[in-house]
DNA sequence: GGTGAATCGGAACGGGCATTCCGTTCCGAT
DNA sequence: ATCGGAACGGAATGCCCGTTCCGATTCACC
């Protein structure tokens, strides 16, 4: 009994949903959360059955929402990039409002929070992916905008050398977060240790003469992961 | 040193081998090389059939020398650690002989060469491994000895802050080499870019007052990967 | 040349996992 | 109270991959 003109999407998500749909919606978020946890813990090779079990649903329910394992991973990635974009904007707001926010600068603060954040590391694409999906592209653009603000601010504040790019920030995210065989707290501490080192290096390079060559361009970075 | 793991004692290896054994020996090194390449390219999930094909032998021949996929990966890891130990000793010799070897210091030079070296990244254990095998333990000790020399030298030269440990070097190796979706040359350039940043940070921390907390201890690091 | 042993390559086996299919359950409307 | 259909859980399916097995091949030695 769908409404006569109902298109492919039902967008009003705020109202109290009818019971059965409510469960579906709840299942969906449960699946996403379970997937995030399971993939973070066991890596890419975790089974769909595992995800389903963690979410407390059957595999069928997982597949109804995400037609394929790759699609599920994709959804996770989009979510991760959106979160990162949100964080970048948030930090940019802070540092632009209070110029003396901290010695780390906006980029450093962003990286630190992203590293210790609950969302987990940004997932990398499954492999030979096609052209990048629209929703990911949009999220990616938002992220870039936020990073642009951070980099501009820090450069003006003199804690970033010329040649440092927004793509550098993404690369650092990758570099600063290899999975370590330690409990989360210890691993985070180690990651922050190296972040601190890099930030010192950045500040030193910014202060003294020794220049840093030009970093990768954003579109190079995005392009390299797709197609 | 051809003996992959251990075997019945037929170790007279120097003389020109009889034809058939020569082929076996050749196959063995071909398999090792193929495995290194295939795993480096396709990651851990590459199939044994792929390895065999790359080596130009049948799967049966691979399994005759390496009873299991994990055993093959193990052999690769041991090889990698041995190479790293050799490199560390070599660089230590250089910097100890010519004190002004370069601004990078011994640790920086070691990291740079290890990153761009042909041996590829150090593989991480398969997962829940048991206690660490004897040959790996020996290679690991050699590596530690070499790193100890490098760290001592650099600290004396004033390019490393107190608190920086040999285990830090290993962690840095992990941090500095995430796989990047770029051709080898470009990826290497990026890795070296971040290595340069870290080294700047290290030098800065060494010069100015701001201390670096104590890094991980070697045995913690080794222990975390096994058992 | 002929023979036995060691090695080879690849077909066959078994298990695990992504994906599909279907009988059951539950909600809302009649 | 009953019915239609949407959502559910999990069994069944098909494929890929690690591993095993075996007949063919090759070489050393006679």
TrEMBL record, chains A, B:
Residue ranges of the annotated DNA-binding region, renumbered to this chain:
47-66
Where does the record place the HTH tetR-type domain? 25-84
The Basic and acidic residues compositionally biased stretches are 9-26
Q: Which PROSITE patterns does UniProt cross-reference here?
A: HTH_TETR_2
Residue numbers spanned by region Disordered: 1-27
GO terms (molecular function) for this protein are: DNA-binding transcription factor activity; transcription cis-regulatory region binding
Keywords carried by this UniProt record: DNA-binding, Transcription, Transcription regulation
Extent of the signal sequence: none
Sorted alphabetically, which InterPro entries does this protein's record hold? Homeodomain-like_sf, HTH-type_TetR-like_transc_reg, HTH_TetR, Tet_transcr_reg_TetR-rel_C_sf
PANTHER family linked to this entry: HTH-TYPE TRANSCRIPTIONAL REGULATOR BETI, HTH-TYPE TRANSCRIPTIONAL REGULATOR RUTR
Protein name stated in the entry: Transcriptional regulator, TetR family
């Amino acid at each position: 009994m769908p409404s006569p003109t109902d298109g492919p999407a039902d967008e009003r998500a705020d109202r109290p949903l009818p019971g059965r749909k409510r469960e579906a919606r709840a299942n969906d978020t449960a699946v996403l959360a379970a997937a995030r946890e399971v993939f973070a813990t066991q890596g890419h090779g975790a089974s769909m059955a595992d995800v389903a079990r963690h979410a407390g649903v059957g595999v069928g329910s997982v597949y109804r929402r995400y037609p394929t394992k790759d699609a599920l991973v994709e959804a996770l990635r989009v979510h991760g990039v959106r979160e990162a974009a949100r964080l970048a904007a948030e930090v940019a707001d802070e540092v632009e409002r209070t110029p003396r926010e901290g010695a780390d600068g906006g980029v450093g603060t962003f990286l630190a929070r992203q590293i210790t954040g609950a969302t987990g590391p940004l997932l990398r694409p499954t492999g030979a992916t096609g052209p990048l999906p629209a929703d990911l592209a949009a999220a990616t653009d938002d992220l870039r905008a936020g990073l642009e603000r951070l980099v501009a601010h820090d450069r003006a504040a003199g804690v970033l050398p010329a040649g440092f790019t927004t793509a550098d920030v993404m690369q650092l995210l990758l570099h600063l977060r290899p999975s370590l065989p330690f409990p989360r707290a210890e691993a985070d501490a180690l990651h922050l240790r190296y972040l601190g080192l890099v930030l010192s290096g950045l500040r030193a390079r910014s202060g003294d003469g020794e220049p840093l060559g030009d970093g990768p361009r954003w579109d190079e970075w995005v392009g390299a992961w797709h197609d």
